[in-house]
Specification:
alpha/beta
């Protein structure tokens, strides 16, 4: 899309008729096969932190034994992050342990969501355990339906379940066009991927 020096909305944007300003917590999904889903979620959490809002994340794949850049940054500025996985589940030799960790992460997430203490909660990479049947999608939908009114909930991960997409206020699909590893064999880079 070309730059618009007149600060007008793009020509393909038409606001709904009788647009009313509604204040409510949103459900946002970052999905798709491209990079940037978690990064976009953390960008929103950082924006909320800058506004004095209380944010936290439960990471359903990341391991507490690993230290990722976003975890180190969150720790420095006081954003709570709970890793609830074992790393890349597709390399696991015992998926029952991965499933148990995901279930534990979901219990923690439900407590955080219902606590009323947060303005923004990210369920990072929850789409995977939902897709694999480790976390029941209907239970996730029920928790979303009963979340505090002003809580913004960010859901990330590939292949977001249709039921999650249906209840979300905003769904963004990250589409891979080119990838340094797939196209050039360049491995994950510190500060970019982790």
């Amino acid at each position: 899309m070309p730059l618009n020096p007149l600060n007008k909305p793009p020509t393909d944007f038409t606001p709904p008729p009788n647009l009313k300003r509604i204040r409510k917590g949103l459900v946002l999904i970052n999905t798709g096969n491209g990079k940037g889903k978690t990064t976009a979620g953390f960008g929103m959490m950082l924006r909320a932190w800058g506004r004095g809002m209380n944010s936290m994340a439960v990471q359903f794949i990341k391991s507490e034994k690993s230290k990722y850049g976003e975890q180190m940054a969150a720790e420095k500025i006081g954003i709570e992050m709970i890793p609830a996985g074992r790393g890349f589940s597709w390399t696991s030799k015992d998926l029952t342990e991965d499933e148990a960790l995901a279930q534990n992460g979901w219990q923690i997430a439900k407590e955080k969501i219902s606590s009323g203490e947060y303005d923004v909660i990210m369920l990072d990479e929850i789409t995977y355990p939902v897709t694999w049947g480790w976390i029941d999608v209907d239970e996730v939908i029920e928790v979303i339906a009963n979340k505090p009114e002003m809580l913004n909930l960010i859901i990330t991960g590939r292949d977001a379940h249709k039921k999650l997409v249906d209840v979300a206020d905003l769904v963004t699909e990250m589409k891979e066009i080119k990838h340094p590893y797939a196209d050039q064999g360049i491995p994950a880079q510190k500060g970019v991927e982790f």
